[in-house]
Amino acid sequence: MQAYLVRLLSQLDKNPLSPYYGCFDRDFWHYKMASDFPSATYQMGALSLALAYTRPICDEYYRNETVLEYIRAAVRFWAAIQNRNGSFNEWHPNEQSLVATSFTAWGVSEALLCLSPEERRGVSADLSTVWAKVGHFLDKNIDTIALNHTAGSVACLYNLYQLTGDKAFLSILDKQLNTLLKHQDEEGWFHEYGDPDIGYQSLSIFFLAQYWKKSGSQAALAALSKAVDFLSWFVHPDGSVGGDYASRSTKYLFKYGLHLLSEAAPQAGEILGAVDESRIVTAAGVDDRYFTFFLLPDLLLSHGLESPPLEKDRDSSGHSRQFPNCGLIVHNTPAFQLILNLRKGGAFKLFDRRSKSRTASELGYAFSLRPGKVMTSLGYGRSNSRISQEDGQTVITIKAGFMAYQAENPLARLFILFRLFNLTCERSSLIHRLFDRFLKLNKVKANKPAPGLLERELVISGDSVRVRDRLVSLPAACRQVYAIHGLNFRYVPSSQYSHPGELLLPPAERLERRKGEEIVWEHSWPFS
Fold first, then answer.
1. For residue range 473-513, what is the model confidence (pLDDT) as tens digits?
2. Where are any strands of DSSP class E within 267-392?
């Protein structure tokens, strides 16, 4: 744990004579040429330091007065970079980011709640206006596209109520909570750009469980019970979770919310007992941004909490589940587990239960006709599927149209224009909201049709799985196609991280094609 805390302190400007004293964004305060503004998300480091200061996690940090001073400096710097409308920026100036506002306000308020009133002196008395502006911003901004943002707002607003005693925060919280519960699917998942994602599902649980634990809200507990049940289906036999078959392709798991729920929702304990740290993305495998902002606080909050022993393996009994609202299928036998997404081009993962290993990760296909533009079957919205029973076999057929994705970085050409827009037009909250929605719907969630069709047939027979893929209607200029096993094309900042075991997957396989030919790929996996 000490190595993680040393890494955290290396990101902090510890010079009290610096104008950026307390800033955790090393790209901004130290490298200087790498960033022209401080990203507020790094200030989540204040919470990690507060946890190390108040809990016996590491002797050097526990009740260390220097650490306490660094916490105060980090909180003061966070407050100083607040926008006039109460928001904070994550990716660019005047971004007015909902996630940077709700998540960091939660982190800073949680850090202060860890401290005694005496220890808060020097920062908390100066924050009443900051909290009021955060509440005003969250009252005007509710996210229904990525619900983990809304869950973060709920946890944040309850903390602000605890710190101030102001019931106005509870009124705003009710609006955020009602939105979150309204948009939770009846199958238990929270929307992440229209579909469920496993890592972000655990993040929503992380925030909502803390609100439930502090408030006792039964409505929150009911939602959490459904959310945990959904999540429990996507812990794999090898101890990994989630991945590229889900909406945002994340492969991490927030554990603290599950620890809080381990008695109220026993399946939370089952998940904790089944996950293998060596098979998921952890704080050790991410960059400084998501180390500080995402995974280190969860690691420290969970420190010392025991994962309950796994008393049963529900899936090995042969139970299976189909989630028709999102297209996910979990097919279990005592020999193997198959997870398939009918809505995402038939992407699937296959696991051998006996060896507890991943056997296949057949996501789809991709090709490029010019640099920076990729066409792939691994997209949402252009899939048709049918499931039938034939001669004792389950036959699943999917027809998935290809989608076009922009792989190049547009700021390589347009940075100066983008910054001018940030510093002028985007000062307007209305223009910012329109631009933010444009980016989410047209650049992140966008599914632009492209030439090409994948016809996939999966046949499940006893203890074997067989797949046959046909690629048809490809453009004449397409001469090679890549079969992809572990790539994601949708823009998701917290994806594309490495984890132990990923090198067991084969590299993308190049398939050559003559003009006018279709491509056929077949494989079978016997488990008898």
1. 999 889 899 998 877 778 788 888 888 777 877 788 888 88
2. 321-323, 328-332, 336-341, 347-352, 357-362, 364-370, 373-376, 383-390
Residue 461 lies in a domain: yes
φ, ψ of residue 30 in degrees (nearest 5): -105, -55
Phi-psi region of 426 (alpha: psi -120 to 50; beta: other; left: phi over 0): alpha
The total of structural domains in the chain comes to 1
**CA 523, CA 98: separation in Å to the nearest integer?**
46
Contacts of 513 (CB under 8 A, 6+ apart): 474, 478, 479, 480, 481, 519
The tokens describing 321, both together, are 């589940």
**Contact in structure between 347 and 378 (CB atoms under 8 Å):** yes
CA angle 199, 201, 207 (to 5 degrees): 105
Beta bridge partner(s), residue 458: 396, 467
Given this model, what pLDDT does residue 425 score? 87
Q: Compute φ and ψ for 284, nearest 5 degrees.
A: -70, -20
CA separation, residue 337 to residues 314, 355, 406, 429 (Å):
12, 12, 33, 48
DSSP letter at 442 equals I
The CA–CA distances, whole Å, from 351 to 235, 306, 419, 485, 527 equal 11, 27, 47, 14, 10
User: How far apart are the C-alpha atoms of 468 and 520, rounded to whole Å?
Assistant: 7
Structural domain of residue 327, as residue ranges? 314-526
505, part of any domain: yes
**Which of 136-145, 232-241, 515-524 has the least mean pLDDT?**
515-524
Tens of pLDDT along 300-315? Answer: 999 999 876 655 444 4
What's the rounded Cα separation, in Å, for the pair 353 and 334? 7
- Going by C-alpha positions, the residue among 355, 308, 368, 359 that lies closest to residue 338 is 359
Give domain status of residue 460, yes or no. Answer: yes
Which residues, listed in sequence order, are joined to residue 396 by a DSSP beta bridge?
Answer: 387, 458
Return the C-alpha torsion angle 331, 336, 342, 345, nearest 10.
180
Question: Has residue 329 been placed in a domain?
Answer: yes
Beta-bridged to residue 399, according to DSSP, are 384, 455
The answer for residues whose C-beta is within 8 angstroms of residue 413's C-beta and 6 or more apart is none
Q: What are 203's two structure tokens?
A: 């993040």
Q: Are 88 and 101 in contact (CB under 8 A)?
A: yes
- Report pTM: 0.94
504 CB contacts (<8 Å, ≥6 apart)?
A: 357, 358
Tell me phi and psi for residue 454, to 5 degrees: -100, 125
Which token pair is 102? Answer: 């709700």
Which of 278, 279, 272, 268 lies closest to 242 in space, CA to CA? 279
Which parts of 184-333 fold into alpha helices (H)?
198-215, 218-232, 256-261, 266-274, 288-290, 296-302
H/E stretch holding 406 = strand 393-406
